[in-house]
Amino acid sequence: MKTNLGVVSTILIALTLHGTAWADSPPPNPPPGPALTKDQLAAAIRKAYRRNENATFDNDFNFLWSNHATQAMVDKYFGIKNPPAGDTSADPCAVPPHLFIRQNRLDTFQLRNAPLDVASAKGASIMGTNDERSGTRTLTVNGRAQYAISSDDPACVASLDPTRPHGAPSYQFVFAPFVDAQGTIDTPAKKTDVNDVQGGVDLQFNVLGGPLFDEQSFILTPYVQTDFNGIAQIQGVTAGWEPVNTTAHLGGYLTDPTNSYLAWFWQLRGEFDNKHVSTVGSTGYTKGNYDWLGGTVQVHFDFFPGYGSVNPFYVSPFPLLEDKFYTNLTLKSFWNASSNKSATWFEAELGYNLTADKKSSISVKYDYGTDKDTLVTSKKYLLAINYKN
Amino acid sequence: MTRKPSKQKPRAKAESPKKKSIGKSIHKPTPITSLFSKQKILANFAGASVSRDEIYYRLEWVFTNKYDPSSPHVIAPIAQISALLKHLTLEDLWEKLDRVSPQAFHGITIPWLSNAPNYPGVKDVKTFGDLINVIVGAYRKAGWTVS
Known about the structure:
The complex is a heterodimer. By secondary structure, chain A is of the alpha+beta class. Chain A is built from 4 helices and 14 strands. Chain A is globular. Chain B has a two-stranded parallel ribbon with strand order 1-3. In chain B, α2 packs across α3. The longest helix of chain B has 15 residues, at 90-104. β8 (253-254) of chain A pairs antiparallel with β2 of chain B, so a sheet runs across the interface.
């Protein structure tokens, strides 16, 4: 038995070593061959189409035949939708409501009709630790849930208007109630605990098109704020402005697969925040009125971006660095008209993507300055492991 | 950086920019400032027909700001549109196409909604190939012949 096991082990090890050596050796280069002529290329593509189409057709046919398919079942299978007879009242430009679950206000940056690509956003996070030795518990929450209800889609309305000049503005209104929680709470409580919970509604007016920007959003937000213990009492209203200009990479950009070195965009939000603090709680405020005027700028850099998903023949000049490193810079600067004081907060983040889909990363952050929402001054370094989905 | 076709004669050589009467702005990497200059409209392209490949190159110009019909295409038709829109939505893409239509697409109306299988709209675009089909459909709807 031992001998048999030894033989099996030896074979397995040999196979493993063989497999390893095989895997480590460079893949054989495909014969380059001459470029196909137009006719040859057309024939090759048609052949590939036929091969796939035949396989797909046979699979679909077998499935539907075995289910005794009717025409209605075929339509349902292929997602063919027939409008209900006599229904002419359906609004083709109507926008269905949408629920956002993101990390913060900047993460839902614009409540637009087509939700932002999840891969471009940070998710909400809740972290809890229970230290049995010291008898302390910590809860950290960074999240925002928001439900957006919109009027008609402005792109749809604009594209159906034959008299509208190219680039002329069209408009939309969005009603979006939200709950936003940010901060840390410890048990037993620590003096350094800073946290807040906001509830309110974004009343947003979108302008699609116009002379300077591709899109602009004007947002009025009445809200109430407290802390995680429900002690703080704060009421306020903010007014915000968020522009998009794809040419200037403001708010986002169209992928340029000819740029192998840097992909970047920046976000801008101008803001006025009127706040009345009745009870301070764990927010870091003092009692009184605040009239903050200022804005937030975020800049995102992706170094050596990969374009394999855009062009299968793309070859990065730096394959080992492709899609690995990113940097985010955030600056929040506000001036309090009531007290003539300023609050400026800066964060720099250098990250390394752990997975090819960029969902997991490790990053070093440096925070410096005073957060106007908490009035706490910080100067700290953080090492974070991030995951989003 | 894209792979250069190895020792391969550029197929589109016969369609070199000089031999075609297309406006200047789209021949070289187009400066941002000229993008919105109405003087540089591609009005020289006065025929009522356009090739699908020409539309392909013009659509790539919207993304890369470079136009060179003698070079290989850099965006594959199978590319998912989400990979081409960073922090942007299809509405932003529609707005951009609508804005540059006078410069790049002879001022045709870019549809948002799909009307029929042959006339898709930007709203239903899933891949770059779908987007090419949108512009091809829009040209046809405007009375152009697309070869």
